Amino acid sequence: MDVIVKQGNVTDEVTDALVVSLFEGTTSPGGGTGAVDRALDGMVSQLIANGDIRGKLKEVTVLYPAGKIPAQRVLVVGLGKQETFGYEQVRQAAAAAAQRARDLGATLLTSIAHGAGTGGLDPAMAAQATVEGTVLGTYQLKNFKSNSSNGAGRMLQSLTILEASAEKMASVANGTEAGQIIAQATCLARDLGNTPGNIATPTYLARVAQDIAAETGMRIEILEQEDTRKLGMGAFVGVSLGSEEPAKFIVMEHNAGKADLPTIVLIGKGITFDSGGISIKPSEKMEEMKYDMCGGGAVLGAMQAVGRLGLPLHVVGIVPASENLPSSTAMKPGDILTAMNGKTIEIISTDAEGRLVLADSLCYAARYQPAAVVDLATLTGAITVALGNQCAGMFGSGEELKQHLSAAAQVSGDRVWELPLYPEYADQIKSEWADMKNSGGRLAGSITAAAFLANFAEGYPWVHLDIAGVAWTTTERGYNVKGATGFGVRLLVEMLRTWHK
Ligand code: BES
Ligand code: MN
Ligand code: ZN
Asked: Quick check: pTM over 0.90?
């Protein structure tokens, strides 16, 4: 979708669908919505008075101006109550309106930046959230049907963000551009998650990383299995032993070598298919394990956005990419692996493979002496038992970093909730034979996974996000359409953009 920003009045705009908005309880709308109301001889306020328009969040009312203004249709979208209003409500309202416009056959969409006027939001952030909601809400699931209308079906072609005020224009333009970059990066993460495991292999992820690096001028290094073995990354190496598909340890660096900039390392679990290995998973829903690289997808998306936004930070993106399959050469329960920091791991379940690839990634991260490390992983089924599909689980040692991420979560809509890492939880992963074991049993499964990771996240502030409950959705949920959600891209980018503030 093309995204354009323009100064002008809603009543002059030639478009298939014009989106304006109002709060619940408004009786006489102001701003762009008020201008439309006046041009349509009070139609909007009449519908409010009749109770047809209530302004409830995501309520969409379609009006036909019949030549009174050049727009073919006007979509009035509700923003909900002013007390509960914020950027997330902007995204949800924008998505609801865009989905309706698309379903009506519109291709050219024009919208005001919701909340930038009477809503009192920062105009740049309001424009950004409007673009995000529109682009993400009309994301088209890539499919592989031979007679599919992919690309040719009903789809918006362009979004114009219209701003009437000259003073706000520069901020709205900045926010629109950022919104487009961030939404596109989220769509990249979604595409990677949705692409099946036979196509989105570790090699495929490495190629995507190379494309991002080439476009944005980043440094990139792809470590092959042999390179990682020489570095002593026994945990990472162990996971891919059962697969013919070569593992790739992807390392990208934005602003490489600029020593004066703070270094932040992002790590994303990149298991392109998780069968469980020798500890094989039940076959029911196993196809969903193509999504086990969604942490890696989020890091690749975030790196693309970081590069395009030209953020003044040294950002390192690490994606340990590998496939977890059973074979006669696969690692087995009882095996003992040695990670890069020399610690030994007894394998109890080969299905607890995510923490193995992350362990060596966390060790590798230490070489940058980072100011912060954040890892994202579809790490445990247990996190969905604890938190469902509403937020990611957050764990870690960096108190300030956790606070910063919580604030970024609030703004970005990628929500996180902290769970405890009391030292006693580590008792569950004590091993008779090695420094630790890779499974702590059923109780507090997400916490013991995080406690395992803590053994390797040494020497820097660290946060682990368990995204297994939020990385994909099987039901349509507002701007999160079916499939991979791209969770983490907006959160990471927001965290990085506000790093110094
Ligand atoms: N990728 C899975 C976690 C997962 C399961 C994510 C279901 C989303 C849906 C991970 O590799 C895994 O298998 N974890 C095990 C850990 C256990 C063996 C300690 C789990 O959650 O069962
Ligand atoms: Mn697994
Ligand atoms: Zn996994």
From this structure: yes
